[in-house]
Amino acid sequence: MKKVMMVAMACGALSLCGAQNAVSVKIAETYAGKSAFITGAASGMGLCTAKTLAAAGATVFMVDINAEGVKKEADAINALGKGKAYAVVADVRNFAEDEKAAKFAIEKAGKIDLLVNYAGGNEARICKSYKPLYEQPIEVIDWGMDTNLKGPLYVSRAVMPYMVKAKGGVIVTLGSVTGFEGDSASTYSVTKGGLTNLALSLAKAGAPYGIRAFCVAPGPVLTRPAMAKMQTLLGFASQPQEVVDFILFMASDCCPSITGTTHVIDAGRLAMGRQATTGGFLESKSKK
Ligand SMILES: NC(=O)c1ccc[n+]([C@@H]2O[C@H](COP(=O)([O-])OP(=O)(O)OC[C@H]3O[C@@H](n4cnc5c(N)ncnc54)[C@H](O)[C@@H]3O)[C@@H](O)[C@H]2O)c1
C-alpha cells in the first residue's frame, strides 16, 4: 500500500492523474532501464506516462512544443532521483525537429524501446473555433491535420529506423472514440480515425523486425476538468493514470502479440450508441 501511494505521489497531482494499483506498479517496473520517447509530455497523459516510467527507473525523452512547461516537468522528475528525464523541445509537425529529437535520444540512451504519440488535441477547442466543419477556416483544419495526423506519422518516421536497426520496439498512437463517432465540428475525428490506420500500417512495416504498433482510443479522460461533462455509460470520465497503465501494459513484454489493433478505453461511451456527436461543442444545435 505504501509503495502504491509513493508511486501515486510521484505521478503528481492525484486529481489530474490518478493512483496506480499494485499490478500496474509491477508492470511499470518492467520498463526499468528502458528508454521511452513520449510526445506531448509537458501535460496530461504524456506527462503522466513520463512520471510513471521514470519512477520505475526508465529513461524518458519528454518531447513537447511547450519549452517552459516540459523543462519544468523534466526538472521535477529528475529531482525525485529515480529514472532520467530529458526535456526535448520539438514541434511534431516539423520533421527536421522530430529527426533531431530522435537522434538526441539515441545519442543519450542508445535506443528507443517505446514511442508514445500523445501530442495533439481537438483543433476546434484549441483554436477556439466552434463552427460546423463546413465553416471551419482552412488554417484551423490544417492545424488539426498537421498536429494530430501528420505529427504522429512524422515522429514515427523519425524514430522507427532506429527500432528497425535494433530489431525491436513498440509504437503507440493515440486515437479517440471520436475516431469512431465522427464529429461535425472538426477534423479531430478524421485524424483520430486515421491513427487506427497508422498503427495498422506501422505494425505491418514493423513486424519483420519484431516491432509492434497499436492504437489506444480513449473516451473522455480527466486531463482537464471539462472532460467530466462528457457523457459515458458509467457516468464518469477515465483517470489519466488508468489509460497510461493500460497503454504500458499492452506495450510491455506481457503482451507480445498485441499489434495492428485499436483498443478502446472509454467508460462505455461507444456502447451508448450516441448519434452524430460533435465532441460536445455543437450538441445543442444538432436539430435544425
Ligand atoms: N483527454 C482526453 O479526454 C482524450 C480523449 C481521447 C484522446 N485523447 C488524445 O490523447 C492525447 C493526449 O491528450 P491529453 O488530454 O493528455 O493532452 P494535453 O492537452 O494535456 O497535452 C497535449 C500536449 O501536446 C503538446 N503539443 C501540442 N501540439 C504540439 C506539437 N505540435 N508538437 C509537440 N507537442 C505538442 C502540448 O503542448 C501539450 O503538452 C491527445 O492526442 C488527445 O487527442 C485525449
General description of the model:
With about 290 residues, the chain is α/β, with parallel strands linked by helices. The protein has one domain (about 20-285): NAD(P)-binding Rossmann-like Domain (Rossmann fold), CATH 3.40.50. The protein has 10 helices and 7 strands. The protein has helices at about 1-10, 20-30, 45-55, 65-80, 95-110, 125, 140-165, 180, 190-205, 240-250, and strands at about 35-40, 60-65, 85-90, 115, 170-175, 210-220, 260-265. A 7-stranded parallel β-sheet has the order 3-2-1-4-5-6-7, sandwiched between helices. Strand 2 (about 60-65), helix 4 (about 65-80) and strand 3 form a beta-alpha-beta unit. The longest helix has 29 residues, at about 140-165. The model is unreliable at about 1-15 and about 285-288 (pLDDT under 50). The structure holds nicotinamide-adenine-dinucleotide (NAD). Nicotinamide-adenine-dinucleotide (NAD) binds near residues 120, 121 and 220.
